[in-house]
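Batch 3, record 17
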Amino acid sequence: MKYGNNKYEDIKIAYIGGGSRGWAWGFMSDLAVCEDMCGTVYLYDIDLEAAKKNEKIGNGIKDIEGCKSQWKYKAVETEKEALEGADFVIISILPGTFDEMESDVHTPEKYNIYQSVGDTAGPGGILRALRTIPMFEEIAENIKKCCPDAWVINYTNPMTMCVKTLYKVFPEIKAFGCCHEVFGTQKLLVNALEDIKGIKDVKREDIKVNVVGVNHFTWLTKAQYKDIDIFPVYREFAEKYKDNGFVKKSDENWMNKYFSCSEKVKIDLFLRYGSIAAAGDRHLAEFCPGDWYLKDKETVEKWGFALTPVSWRKGDLEKRLERSEKLYSGEEKFELKETGEEGVQQIRALLGLGDLVTNVNIPNYGQIPNLPIGAVVETNACFRANSLNPVFAGNIPQAIYPLISRVCGEQEQVVDCALNRDLDGVFNAFAADPNMCISVSDARKLFDEMVDNTKEYLKMYF
Amino acid sequence: MKYGNNKYEDIKIAYIGGGSRGWAWGFMSDLAVCEDMCGTVYLYDIDLEAAKKNEKIGNGIKDIEGCKSQWKYKAVETEKEALEGADFVIISILPGTFDEMESDVHTPEKYNIYQSVGDTAGPGGILRALRTIPMFEEIAENIKKCCPDAWVINYTNPMTMCVKTLYKVFPEIKAFGCCHEVFGTQKLLVNALEDIKGIKDVKREDIKVNVVGVNHFTWLTKAQYKDIDIFPVYREFAEKYKDNGFVKKSDENWMNKYFSCSEKVKIDLFLRYGSIAAAGDRHLAEFCPGDWYLKDKETVEKWGFALTPVSWRKGDLEKRLERSEKLYSGEEKFELKETGEEGVQQIRALLGLGDLVTNVNIPNYGQIPNLPIGAVVETNACFRANSLNPVFAGNIPQAIYPLISRVCGEQEQVVDCALNRDLDGVFNAFAADPNMCISVSDARKLFDEMVDNTKEYLKMYF
Amino acid sequence: MKYGNNKYEDIKIAYIGGGSRGWAWGFMSDLAVCEDMCGTVYLYDIDLEAAKKNEKIGNGIKDIEGCKSQWKYKAVETEKEALEGADFVIISILPGTFDEMESDVHTPEKYNIYQSVGDTAGPGGILRALRTIPMFEEIAENIKKCCPDAWVINYTNPMTMCVKTLYKVFPEIKAFGCCHEVFGTQKLLVNALEDIKGIKDVKREDIKVNVVGVNHFTWLTKAQYKDIDIFPVYREFAEKYKDNGFVKKSDENWMNKYFSCSEKVKIDLFLRYGSIAAAGDRHLAEFCPGDWYLKDKETVEKWGFALTPVSWRKGDLEKRLERSEKLYSGEEKFELKETGEEGVQQIRALLGLGDLVTNVNIPNYGQIPNLPIGAVVETNACFRANSLNPVFAGNIPQAIYPLISRVCGEQEQVVDCALNRDLDGVFNAFAADPNMCISVSDARKLFDEMVDNTKEYLKMYF
Amino acid sequence: MKYGNNKYEDIKIAYIGGGSRGWAWGFMSDLAVCEDMCGTVYLYDIDLEAAKKNEKIGNGIKDIEGCKSQWKYKAVETEKEALEGADFVIISILPGTFDEMESDVHTPEKYNIYQSVGDTAGPGGILRALRTIPMFEEIAENIKKCCPDAWVINYTNPMTMCVKTLYKVFPEIKAFGCCHEVFGTQKLLVNALEDIKGIKDVKREDIKVNVVGVNHFTWLTKAQYKDIDIFPVYREFAEKYKDNGFVKKSDENWMNKYFSCSEKVKIDLFLRYGSIAAAGDRHLAEFCPGDWYLKDKETVEKWGFALTPVSWRKGDLEKRLERSEKLYSGEEKFELKETGEEGVQQIRALLGLGDLVTNVNIPNYGQIPNLPIGAVVETNACFRANSLNPVFAGNIPQAIYPLISRVCGEQEQVVDCALNRDLDGVFNAFAADPNMCISVSDARKLFDEMVDNTKEYLKMYF
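Prediction for the assembled complex:
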């Protein structure tokens, strides 16, 4: 790449998982409306056809009205081709298929273990990690060989374990993981400001928060809007909506019954623990003891959120495939709109085009002193020209330390054991997961079944 | 006190809980057979009569054959009288009566929560802490006033929370907590050496161990006898006895069905986690997820240990009271025998009469880098003349970090909230305890009932 | 204060040292051109007349063309009056007079100890600290009473010791220290980019740096402009100018012989140590062993910088007093121009009007892991709405650790001893200062003389 | 080796530097009087003849009256032969000859830099390190290959840098460095107890001390004998002897003018800094600023200690060579007497034959929280069966932190640069050494000359 005339040219981005129908399009859109950089995005996907379709879709964007920068897209046949000499690497893959995810999410139901998402924590998250970690191992090794100086942005779940794998395999990697769950909570705080204080038109980014925790089990220890400490405001809001939940009108239109969320889990955790739980309720619930919010379907309903069945994801994929065809054929026009994701802003900041402070997932260098050094945590970090430094976040508050330290440690354990191909070690983490309100012997049966269900992706362990 | 002719004289010991029928007698016996020190033990107890009886019993010891040093015993009416100018303070109290303990242990059974001991962890341990912490607050304040330079040895449970309270209230206190559970595991390793290797007559103290964890959930990361690494020996032993358990002949005589233990929990934890769990199975079980070893009475039986009903303790107390009367009246002769406790050896070491390295409960200065600084932990420490320094123990091994960090944090939380008289904060710890496999609303009902049952001792919270 | 319509009103700023002729005017100017806030600045100074003059000067600004916000200025008679309810506190005082500074700087010359500035490090810095620390003690106590929630910006030297005093006296204080020396080095890097690479019109703020060290002995471990790593550029620059120094044309006009600097010290330190020394050469020299750059006047000349005699400062003060009169009388027009200082931008960021990442002096929370926790260090920090968090800076590089750790520790020692009124303790730091290439007995004589010279301000130590 | 009947047999010890005339004989003597272990000592020395002589001398010991255990001695031709399968490794070598040491010690005198020992700190220590580090590199690599599980005891100076090299090259090494300087200070405290308090016959080991610092610049933060805090006693002693020094009668006989020491440096440091400097004055002086105790010969004399000329060492070596011949030929009888060194006791403790707590040089795991993790420091450690764990020592007291942190960092720097063959990096440490009260350019000339003088041993750097 090169910089001149207030603009970067010839940036090379490798997109691993570049056949994606969804994330990739959003990223293309965000790139297109960003004036001060352009270059080429290399799309790599195990589904080469999908990548090729995205190549064509991407290359069509430059002709759309409102497009401000000319990016080229190129599908490539090998990961290394994509990575070679890359300035940035995006990783957004689905480890396995929705069939595997179906096992992850629904097999545990035999033991009355319900999971609202099943991609991060709990038995589903661990099995997904088993598939994902070897893939990230390979990616990390390839990055080491092909583009050791590239900045690497991961969007894949289980986030914490993916990022940890990258750093274990290639400690000098410049990687971080991005997730928009905290943004959702900032938006809820915007709602609270309007609902309680009558303050309108506050922007999400103007809610300044201090973030601690691990991905999808993030907590805010401070939230401020201009001169207003939001904690007392949110307390009032929480008391108001703790019984019936808070559902925004606009959300209802978009949402469906499988993603519904009335913020009651979030509110309950806040009222009990004093810090603001800052992820979707479906995620938060999966990090808490299994008897709290996910005991059974009635409990889930009572807490006003939903279990997302993988069947829905399969159906949704169909729709996205159809849309892909239409975009590919030109039947549907690609529309430019900002996604609200920060990936492109982070890239700009790393290129020195404006500082950015936001939350990311990176190893703990001491930004959270009472979690183990090296564990991947989510806190604010400071993006500047070719640098990403964590912002000191402070200790996990004592009240929530027991909840967070155990899952932080569990995820560390899974990564290490998976890298050592030690399934028994992984099982130890699995058995002690907060969701696992069953005996060790039942846990073992469940684990073995889940491994067997997804064994096609787990050959390296045997 | 003063030192001369290789001997200390006029040592002043304050014994808080000095009416004890059991611990106190053992301590008296250990003092009597120690040649190089003598002085006065001031016995304070809320049951003054009991202290007076022990005064007489203690003062009779000097005439027993085998007594090597002349200690005086004196019952006093106030705690301050006992503490004033003390060189050493022993704290060994029962917080409340066995009626309160009955509530601690058995009330949770309504929710199918079984506790094998109920004095350290779990709902019972937390309620006991609620009673104990204000008592230790007062003791710490009195020590600060009356004998700030004294060494303070605590034997009371819940150990971790008692010691933490002392340090929170009087940070300069020279206090530590002692517990013999690790010794029991060292003895088991002696058995393993004999059973597997045919090595006989090994002394417990010659098993050198590295200890990490919190009291009653202690783990050995290293165990060595002379040139033998005991880990592979213990592994063989564990494999041999994992199904049917290991019960020593001599133990059977002593034990009764309420204290039985076949080491199967300990063995299971070792085989799964790779470090040696080092406390009695009844204690270990209470720190693990409730569904593992304490799910129901059948599970307990299957794992070869027992629930100790408080009714048994009440009966046992009767017997000890009877024995107290007999010792007091002279009907029974006081017998001198070493208890195997290390209290007197620790005192000697602190007086400069010989270095001692053994495990104790003190704040974390960094001896366990991956637990929070300041949290009370159990590791080896080095006792020398007027100094007690922790020995670097290393990180909690990753595999057991999730199990230990959560209970370590929970206990920190209980102490802080109890000192702030914040019952809601205590409840948060209570609800997240590993034993609590119930919903938050049920947890609240149980908590309220347990508080109500013991409210006579909890007035300061209202 | 209150926020509305994208603007803050009624902000209350306390300016301690508000009679200043120089800093205060610059600050007034920066406030005036900032659109989104206004309020009142309370000027407190031991020289009330000076404050009153600044009141009039300040209140005249609103009528100047280009003034964008209406600030009121009000001189007050007591520090507490200024502080009461303040939102922000500026501290910019001269501890003592230039007579005391004359002793600080020139008395050591009797022992061939030359100081180029004498306000931060070395014997002069320590004596100045002796006067300043009790003043800051009082300020901190008043802030605790009058405006505990205010943000406090210190500009006074010795910076590190001033900020440390504030935190020692009132640990919850929200204080930080600002210094523009790093900016000067960023400008030098701008020059290097132009000189070596031909890149023009780079802005100082676009040089992104990672800062470690203590104030006036700050070092850059990373410097980046867009996609350019500046280290190799600066190395080329350093090799080019190491013999004859680098003097910018524009600087020559402004500078006089007492402030001259040819960057040779900075270049020498870089070439030897590999990190970029990032303060003026006159400051850097004072933190290095006395025989390096300040051995005698010839050595100073050889290294291309100057000793600033206090007589010059006295003359300069005369000129500033004259200018003050002219501004006061209206003979001279107050001119609005940006100072390049960041104080007003920091205030804006703390009000939530835009994030800012810049270098400041605050306690070490772990942002520099190999310096003691709690020591005041200079690193980047992140300013956001009502929050200031250090950015992780990493270890002091091994090569410069010996140079920095000793002065960091020395300053900690001076503050503690000064707060305890322990002059012997301060002397220990004094004797071991890098500049002190003399025997301990000579050091004592010098110390006593310097104390005696300034005893009017040191009564609290006797 | 094997253990049985309360005794170890077939222990294999590798002695690197086994041709030594002095240390080796003492070690043989200590081994001979230790009942519970025996085996073979493999003597390796670059001077094979010397090793062979020691083989014969050693093998003659078993016939001496008072010899309690039968050790065999065997000179070997290669280091690897000695190390292969060793249980313990002793390293006690002279890096280079006294000709090189002559350059180390006396060349700096051209610049008025005087060194009392010149083997640890200062320019001499650094040049010695340059020769030694590559030798230790090789030793560490051989240990890794031949006996990775052996315990390694180093006696060679510069101690800190030798031990650090072992750990840098082979991080899993079980190595520590031993030095008797702290023992000497304990003996001085014994003298103080007798002199001030009239307490007689106190044993060195009964003075319990807390040690912090780096080798030869160790400090005691606590010293206790039974119930007596020695600090006030030592203060009285220090005041009594600060002017004329303290010289023990018995010492005078032994000592000569080149080793004289009147403890005045030690006393001065104590009175100024409040912690007890705990090494010989000749060593302590070399870690302090050069103008304090080593400014010139008059200053040295005034402080009551001596510079040890290398010519004396050469003469002494002659005598030891003569004695070697006599022992070899049988003309002189080998005499068994305890050396007061602890090496053999440490070996016993590591074999599980009795716990030992004493001071050693090992990496900082956090035993001194305010020095960098990983730096080699001297503190107490706990020796037990196959384990050596540091005892928590606490922070370097603030008053001496500036003195210690800089030399600690300097030594880290020298090791790293020497391992990287980076002489310029070593020079940076050299130039900033406390003894170097000269300009950087003079320092460079001196460095180059010293390197040139000893270049035969420094070929790997060119």
